[in-house]
Amino acid sequence: MRTAVIIPAFNEADALPGVLADLASQVPNHQVIVVDDGSSDGTHLAAVAGGAVCLRLPFNLGIGGALRLGFRYAVREGYDRAYQFDADGQHDATQVPVLLEALDQADMVIGSRFADDRGYQVGHSRGVAMALLRRLVRITSGQQFTDTSSGFRAFRRPVLEFFATEYPMEYMESVEALVLAVRHGFTVREVPVSMRDRVAGTASNRSLRLVYHFVRLFIVLLAGRPNDRTVTWGRRMTRSRQVASRP
Amino acid sequence: MTGQTHALLAVLTVVAVLVIVRLVRQGTLKAKYSVLWLTVGLVLAVAASVPTLLDRVADRLGIWYQPTLFLMLAIGFLLLVAMHFSYELSRLERRVRALAEELALLRGPVEDGGDEAS
Fold first, then answer.
1. Strand order in A53-56's β-sheet?
2. Which residues of B touch A57 (CB under 8 A)?
3. Do residue B40 and residue B80 come from a single domain?
4. B116 is a domain residue
5. How many angstroms separate the CA of residue A37 from the nearest CA in chain B?
6. Which residues of B touch A77 (CB under 8 A)?
7. Per-residue pLDDT tens for A95-130?
8. Is residue B114 part of a domain?
9. A18, pLDDT greater than 60
10. Do B7 and B37 reside in the same domain of the chain?
11. How far is B84 from chain A (nearest CA, A)?
12. What is the pTM of this model?
C-alpha cells in the first residue's frame, strides 16, 4: 500500500522543517509531497532539504488549488491513498495511524478536534462560525460532522481521483469538498484526533471577509454547485485513470 | 431637442464608432467584442440621426417621459454586458488555475532547489 502525504505550503519555510522531521520519524515510509503555493521565502528549498518531493505553483492559488495539484500528482504517481497535512505544525504526526486505520472502513476520513472532548479551544466568534458550518453541512449533505473545516483528512484512491478534477478552490474549500464527497456517494467518517494549537500565524477570520465567504458557501452548497472542472481535462483524467487502474 | 444638442450627439456618436473601428483594426479589441460595441455605436447613430424616433417608440409603448426609454435600454444593456464579463472572468479563472497546475506538473518536482526561477 503506497501512501502519500500532501502538504500545501505558502511561505512556511520556518515551520516546514519541523513538520517534515516529525513525519519522517513517525511515518518514514510515507512519501511526502509538498505543494509550494507560490511562496517567496524559499519554502521549496526547505521542502527539498527535508527530503520531500516539491511541486511549485507559479503563483498563489490558495489551499484548494494547491491540494488539487497534490491530488493530481498522487493519482498520476499511482498512490493508493493519501492524506493532507498542515505545513504550519498544527497537525500531529503521531495521529496519522488513527486516521489511516479508520480509512479501512471509509473512502475518506476526517480527523476531528471536537469528536470527543479533548479540550481544543477556539475563540468565541470562531466557535459560532464553526457551529454554523456544522449545521450547513448537515443540511446540505445529510450527515452530521463535528469538525467540518478540519484540514487533517485521509482519502482512498477513488476519492483522490474525484478530487483531482473536482476539488473546489475558493476559501473554506474544505467544507465544500466534504459536502461534495458525501453527495458523490463516498462514505466519509470522522475520527477524534488531537491537534496542537496554532504555533504561528493568525487564524483567518477577518469578520467581513468571513461573512462574505459564508454567504458564498451557503449559495454554492444550496445551489448544488456547478462544478469547477475544465471539460478537456476531465477527459484526460479519465484516460489516465484507466491506465493507472490496470493491474 | 435643439439643433445644437443634436449636432453634439451626432459628433459624439461618430467619434465613438471611429474609436471602436480603430481598436478593432489595431487588434486591441477582440472581434467578438467589437461586434457588440459596433452594434451599440450603430444604435446610437440611428437614434442621433433620427431624433424623433426614440420619442415615437416611447409613445407607442405608453412611456410618458420619453428619456426613460433610453435609460431603461442603456441600463439593461450594461447589466447584460456586466453579466457576460463575469461569466468570461469565471471561465478564465478556471483555465488559469488548470494551466498553473499543468505547469507545475510539467516542471516536475524541484531538484535540490537548483532552479532559482523567482
1. A53-56, A31-36, A3-9, A81-84, A153-156, A108-112, A188-192
2. 100-101, 103-104
3. no
4. no
5. 10
6. none
7. 999 999 999 999 999 999 887 766 666 777 778 888
8. no
9. yes
10. yes
11. 17
12. 0.78
In one-letter notation, the amino acid at residue A201 is G
- Contact between chains at B112 and A59 (C-beta distance less than 8 A): no
Collapsing DSSP states into helix, strand and coil, what is residue A240? helix
- Look up cell 518514514; give the residue: A28
- Residue-wise pLDDT for A132-178, tens only, equals 889 888 988 889 999 998 999 999 999 999 999 989 888 888 999 99
Q: Identify the residue with better confidence: A237 or A111.
A: A111
Q: Which of A56, A61, A220, A230 to probe the B interface (max B CBs under 10 A)?
A: A56
CB A18 within 8 Å of CB A47:
no
Cell numbers describing residue B118 = 523567482
Q: Tens of pLDDT along B23-68?
A: 878 877 777 777 787 888 788 778 777 778 888 888 888 888 878 8
Cβ atoms of A190 and A147 closer than 8 Å: yes
Judgement on whether residues B44 and B79 belong to the same structural domain of the protein: no
ipTM score assigned to the predicted complex: 0.76
Domain that holds residue B79: 65-106
Number of structural domains in chain A: 1
Number of domains in chain B: 2
Tell which of B95, B110, B115 to mutate to test the A interface (max A CBs under 10 Å).
B110
The answer on pLDDT for A15 being more than 80 is yes
Same domain as B45, residue B1? yes
Chain A CB contacts of B118 below 8 Å = 40
| Residue B44 shares a structural domain with residue B71 | no
Residue with cell 415615437: B56
Q: Please indicate, yes or no, if residue B111 is contained in any of the structural domains.
A: no
A108-112/A188-192 β-pairing = parallel
Name the residue facing A57 among B94, B100, B113 (closest C-beta).
B100
Report the CATH number at residue A65: 3.90.550.10
Query: Could you tell me if residue B26 is inside a domain?
Result: yes
Structural domain harbouring A34:
3-244
Task: Tell me the mean pLDDT in the region A195-213.
Answer: 67
Contact predicate A43/A12, CB 8 Å? yes
Q: What is the pLDDT of residue A124?
A: 77
Same domain, B70 and B39: no
